[in-house]
Structures are given as C-alpha cells and as structure tokens.
C-alpha cells in the first residue's frame, strides 16, 4: 500500500512490479498408507511448500489435491502464540488452532506442562519466554495427539539434551503410529534410517521419485556433491 501511494506522486521509469512465483510445478504424486517419504532438495526447492500444501495451509492454483485422513503437521512451531497470555492459556489457544476441543486440552494440560518442563514459567506470559522455551511448549502441545498423516519439516531443536531425548522418543512414537510420514530434511542419515521412499525437488520441479538411497544419490548428482 505504501509503495502504491508513493508511486502516485512520482514516476520512475524502471519501477518494479509484482509477478507470480510458482513454488511447485507439474507435481504428480500419490502417497499410500504405510509409506515413509523423505523430501530432498536445496533451500527454496519446494519441500516446505509441498508439506504446507498437503497440510492445507497453501491453496493450489491448478490441478487436484486429495488428502484422506487426519493430518498432524510439525513446522513453524512457535507461530500462533499469544505473547501477552500465559503458557497455560496458550495451551488452550494452540489446541484450538490444531482443531482440538477445549475439553480435550484441559484433560491434557497436566501432561503438556510436565513434558515441556517449564516449571513456574507455565503461568508467566509467553513474551517472557526464551525462544527455546517457546519451542518446548509448542512441541509439547503439538505432539500431544498424533494423526494418520504426519508431516515433519526438519529436525526439532528444542532445548537441552534431556528434553531433546524426550522429543526424539515422542517423534519416534508418532512416526510408528502414523499411517503415512512425510519428512523434509537435510539430514540424509536420518532420512535413510526412517524413510523408504524419496522425492527430490529442484527449483519447484519433482525430478526424482523412488527408493530413498537412490534419491540421496540423485540429490548429490544434481548439486555436484
């Protein structure tokens, strides 16, 4: 708006203009029950966009998207907190954003508080939390319940070694319970230990779809590694 108002009072011969950016192009993928799928690609290749499209956060401009099952996504964990509300109040708010009922969140509150390990800070405003404390609370809330389709973006960095151990165990449990896992990561050892299928993205195009070890090889070849 500011740019438009300014342009009304002055003319610039080479003024920039907005244009469409297609983060994903000509994607044709079917993921079935039981599959563990790893997403590979350089930063900006389209991995996160793919995840958020499947999660329903980004609308598609053409084609068809069909998702059958309850989706649980873990990315941008610290988004959605009300900074002036306490951690305890944000448990309820965050639960509502995840589509969970107030009754369910009240039943799970004690478990979430214990898992986050924030002690008395749970009754302090979120704006007084460090970034790590916010992620710990968000992780504890978001992983309280799993889903049929689990979407993960990168590894969760959530505090000290003790908490990281708990986080890893909970993620492992969610993965085991999920019918479908889609994981975007640059940690190829983790991808190969967890996933059986790999999708390689390059500048918004899906350039490889196959066995995970072959997907890693294809990524390395594309990027000259």
Automatic annotation (TrEMBL):
Record keywords: ATP-binding, Nucleotide-binding, Transport
Family to which the UniProt record says this protein belongs: Belongs to the ABC transporter superfamily.
Xref: Pfam families: ABC_tran
Domain called ABC transporter: residue spans: 4-225
GO molecular function: ATP binding
Organism: Pseudomonas izuensis
Name used for this protein in its record: ABC transporter ATP-binding protein
UniProt keyword Transport, yes or no: yes
UniProt superkingdom: Bacteria
